[in-house]
Please model this.
Amino acid sequence: MSEKEVKNLEEIFDARIARDEKIEPKDWMPEKYRQTHIRQISQHAHSEIVGMLPEGNWITRAPSLKRKVALLAKIQDEAGHGLYLYSACETLGVSREELYEQLHSGKAKYSSIFNYPTLTWADMGAIGWLVDGAAIINQVPLCSTSFGPYARAMVRVCKEESFHQRQGFQIMMTLAEGTLEQKEMAQDALNRWWWPALMMLGPLDAESVHTEQSMKWKLKRKSNDDLRQQFVDQTVPQAEMIGLTIPDPDLKWNEEKQSYDFGEMNWDEFWQVVKGHGPCNKERISARVNAWEKGKWVRDAAMAYAEKQANKEVKQAI
Ligand code: BYC
Model:
């Protein structure tokens, strides 16, 4: 294709983005648009799948049958989210095997938040309330992202996340209304998950390498700092309502801004975790690699069965 033809296609593409039209897999798109979507959607898919692990730790120790059923359903939803997202990513011309390989080799990132340990049952509450709460704030704008398959996957994901968030908040509320020990357990979980949840929304805008271009392409509809502010403003009154304290001495209502001022995050910690040196990075990746290797016989059996069925159909047709 000549330079002029490419330029022409780019202009048509930019005009479609400006009109808020969805870009579909077979449409022409700039190579960088395709690559950046593969990066973000696959990281998102990996996060959903790795995100099952910290919660999976508590299925056998849920305090009642009702809690166990809700937790199981939530974790199963995360697997579904991962599968929609891997499928959306595959429409951009990358294979599922390549994506898994990138995760297993440590080449691909996944959300920093899932590299922290889940120490008590209250962590199930804190994850649902804070982590899924932050995820909703991040993902609702993604329902109107420019790439069609990603936007459509996000609609269903957000509906399910909303149940997850309430499930978590309800656990926290119950603990906060319980014995002194239970309330302390809830406060301790909030203390440990608050800052990682804020950092989950990405580096400060000033440090964010992708935001500017991703906003132009309408991949991202809100910046990391805007999402973080929205998360703080939404979550502080919820903590107050259940009598828990946000672990931030600098947290203060700003009348002029009509939102909260809050303290500095520990960005050294964030980058350490992102680079693979968090408390559970090694454990998470080895759990995924192990599951992949141990599941080989299931994949082989499914392929062999599918082949057998296909051969049978061919024979019948003859
Ligand atoms: N963790 O330029 P930036 C869930 C990386 S699943 C690790 O701001 P961008 C759930 C970033 O990738 C929730 N890495 O990037 C599941 C980039 O590095 P690369 C997952 C991070 O993409 C189970 C570099 O830092 N949600 O909710 O414009 C149970 C510079 O950052 C992180 C999604 O994935 C991080 N936290 O913005 C419960 C949502 N933050 O790629 C719940 C979709 C940044 O150049 N993703 N980095 O090597 C997004 O919205 C955006 O990708 C982000 C980052 C806001 C996360």
In short: The mean pLDDT is 96. Residues 148-176 form the longest helix (29 residues).
